[in-house]
From TrEMBL:
It comes from the Bacteria. Transmembrane segments: none annotated. Pfam families: Aldedh (PF00171). Residues 6-87 form the Aldehyde dehydrogenase domain. This is Betaine aldehyde dehydrogenase. PANTHER family: ALDEHYDE DEHYDROGENASE-RELATED. InterPro entries: Ald_DH/histidinol_DH, Ald_DH_C, Ald_DH_N, Aldehyde_DH_dom. GO terms for molecular function: oxidoreductase activity, acting on the aldehyde or oxo group of donors, NAD or NADP as acceptor. The lineage of its organism: Bacteria, Pseudomonadati, Pseudomonadota, Alphaproteobacteria, Rhodobacterales. It comes from Limimaricola cinnabarinus LL-001. Keywords: Oxidoreductase.
Amino acid sequence: MLRGWSDRDEVIALANATHYGLAATVWTRSLSVALDSTSRLEAGYVQVNQNLTIQPNVSYGGFGRSGQGKEASLEAMVEHFTRSKTIVLNFD
């Protein structure tokens, strides 16, 4: 049986005390709790009131030793697998 938590600071500290930070899920009915918790969690992919929902248009990768894998999204593929170049032309 899953245990509920009453001390959010303790839960966030425990979650952040690992070397890994691939994903996290926050379950709450409060928007302010959701926003505060997601900003404090050291994870690369944080969901609220859902779990294991990965979308191909959203970057997915972690922090710490879970830092690899962001190439799973279109946005990240463009960032990681292309080289940008600025060209200025003047034909005067």
